[in-house]
Amino acid sequence: MTRESDENCRWRLPAEWRPNQPLFAFHEDTNANAVLIDTDGRIFAVAEERLTRRRFQGGFPRRSLAWIEQASGVPLAAAPVLVFGNRTHFLPRLLGSLFPSFEHDLFGLPHKTMLFFHHLVFRSPLFARGLEGFNRALLRRRFGKRAAIVDHHFAHAASAYYTSGKTAACAVSIDNYGDGCAARVFDCEGPVIRPVRSVSALDSPGQFYGEIAQLAGIHPLLAGKLTGLAAHGDPAPAREPLQKLFGVSPDGRDFSRTFGWRRSARRPPFADLTRFAPPELAAAAQAVFEDAVVAFVQTAARDTGRRDVVLAGGCFGNVRVNQRIRELPEIDSVWIHPAMSDQGIALGAALAYLAAQKPRLPFRLPDVFLGPEPHEAEIEAALRAAGLPYTRPADPAAEAARLLAAGQVVARFAGPTEYGPRALGNRSVLYDPRDPALQARLNAQLHRAWYMPFAPLVMASHAAQCFLNAAAAREPGRFMTISFYATDWLKQNCPGVVHVDGTVRPQIIDRDDNPPMYRLLEEFHRLTGIPCLLNTSFNLHEEPIVCSAADACRAFRAAKLDYLIAGPFLARRSDE
Q1: Under a CB-based contact definition with an 8 Å cutoff, are residues 366 and 11 in contact?
Q2: How far is CA 572 from CA 183, 383, 403, 436, in A?
Q3: Which of 40, 48, 258, 460 could form a disulfide with 61 if both were Cys (CB 3.0 to 4.6 A apart)?
Q4: Closest residue by Cα to residue 377 from 166, 101, 566
Q5: Hey, CA dihedral for 524, 527, 531, 532, is it positive or negative?
Q6: Which residues is 197 bridged to in the sheet?
Q7: How many domains does the chain have?
């Protein structure tokens, strides 16, 4: 893996992974995204929501494609083949930008219909092949060139395995549904990913978790918030009723979930769940979900005989599940693709296509700074338009560290946007983790739910000081995709980043991971003796993470934060 010296500092894929011709890949369903792998091995990747500012934007990712063409200098016309995730998802291809958001009501008739449609795809290979042929015809008619289509869960598995650096692993993909399935297991060795078994969309763990989130008053596409709320409740009161709704089969190879056309949030058994307080309901849902998913992965590892497990799919955005999987005696290591949700479909499809053309071994993912990077002139123009006073300090990292040590909140907008759902320093809000009153203050300023925890950004050399069993999950810890139990030292010295259940979801950073961010953290450590900063995503409630300089200035002003690192500039909040 090499890095180039252009202004984007994009790393290059190993030589064997570099295509002979540019390769574009797309995901057009909810959470639409686009990827280019150019002939130099550079990856350009972004989710459409970052550019449209509409959370979970679906349909063809037009703006993502436009940015990729502009940033890379490679037009879509230069690619002889286009790669698409999802073999049978025809609605986004028919409706384009008019693709509806009906899946937001998981109890609604349209969503039930879609689940049953995917069950038919699962049950009938002939029906699935016919739909795939229809999709190919749609794509060829639209783009006038050959379209390669990759199965939804195969794309998830490819995104996890080919970026893991492992030469053999058990891959598991679990989400709400895709191409007929809620989950699939794969046995991976060398360049080959071999399907092992699948679970119908009707028995979806993601559907169960989303339904309970909806009952708890959380948008189902933001069901991950349930994990934060769960730590504030007792799972015992609601656990038994939820176990009747969802679980894992006795042999650990399937899930079971009640399905019925008359199921409704207003009728039993779901209506009966409203007697539980939301934290109790969340805690029980988390416990039932964890037990089922962990047992399923444990069985998959045993059946394939693999001690290394690679994971993708929205259900593995649940960091507590990932922690429990890592703690299984059958597992030596776990890797979660950083864009584990459908934001990773396009890259997974591209990697799967390349591996099918010529055998290629997995590589280690260096970082995920693969998205848009505003130019200095754009940043300065946005600061002026927003009326923010700013300077250009000689050492922005040292100045930001000084402000943080003095108790100021500093937002950081610098370098390329992160690929995936996590803010890993380039689109982050930073704060001193020693302040125990911090959570309430920042959640209020960012208009977020009161129960949401914040993540620690920690120097790798001090990880063992902060987290129990830190070395066992160093790789997923780089990308904030797994939780750890906090050490007593962290609880005592950095209470602002420790959740009420004693867990943390850290980003463990080394100098090579993000040199400017590491420099800031290193300077903060020199000033305070604390090798840790609080890191939360730079966005307002239910908005995508900021992408452009204008986005950053608007969010900074709306949240009334103290200081903003914007490229080489340091802006402060205006009193006006």
Answers
A1: yes
A2: 47, 10, 11, 24
A3: 48
A4: 566
A5: negative
A6: 185
A7: 3
Could you give the 3-state DSSP secondary structure of residue 42?
strand
**How far is residue 220's CA from residue 287's CA, in Å, rounded to a whole number?**
18
Same domain, 331 and 381: no
Whole-angstrom Cα distance, residue 504 to residue 491?
10
Asked whether 24 and 40 are in contact (CB, 8 A), the reply is no
Asked if residue 197 and residue 72 are part of one domain, the reply reads no
Three-state DSSP class for residue 458: strand
Residue 362 lies in a domain: no
**Are residues 259 and 135 both part of a single domain?**
no
Q: Is residue 436 part of a domain?
A: yes
Domain assignment present for residue 227? The answer is: yes
Q: Are residues 88 and 54 part of one domain? A: yes
Residue for token pair 């259900």: 315
Coil, strand, or helix at residue 294? Answer: helix
For 535, residues 6+ apart whose C-beta sits below 8 A from its C-beta are 423, 424, 425, 428, 429, 430, 454, 455, 456, 457, 507
Three state DSSP letters for 514-549: CHHHHHHHHHHHHHHCCCEEEEEECCCCCCCCCCCH
pLDDT tens figures, 325-356:
999 999 999 999 999 999 999 999 999 999 99
What is the pTM assigned to this prediction? Answer: 0.96
What is the phi-psi region of residue 119: left when phi exceeds 0, alpha when psi lies from -120 to 50, beta otherwise? alpha
One domain, residues 474 and 556: yes
Which structural domain range is residue 529 located in? 376-572
Decide if 223 is inside a domain. Answer: yes
N-to-C CA span, the chain: 48
At 24, list the tokens: 């574009």
Residue entry with tokens 């050399």: 461
Q: Give yes or no: residues 233 and 299 share one domain.
A: yes
Give yes or no: residues 447 and 518 share one domain: yes
Q: Per DSSP, what are the bridge partners of residue 42?
A: 12
Token representation of residue 49: 């929501």
- Are 149 and 183 within one domain? no
Distances (CA, A) of 266 to 10, 107, 263, 285: 51, 9, 8, 19
Each residue of 30-83: pLDDT tens digit? 999 999 999 999 999 999 999 999 999 999 999 999 999 999 999 999 999 999
Dist. CA 172–CA 300, nearest whole Å: 8
3-state secondary structure 163-220: CECCCEEEEEEEEEEECCEEEEEEEEECCEEEEEEEEEHHHCHHHHHHHHHHHCCCCH
Span 481-524, pLDDT tens digits: 999 999 999 999 999 999 999 999 999 999 999 999 999 999 99
pLDDT reading at 149 higher than 80: yes
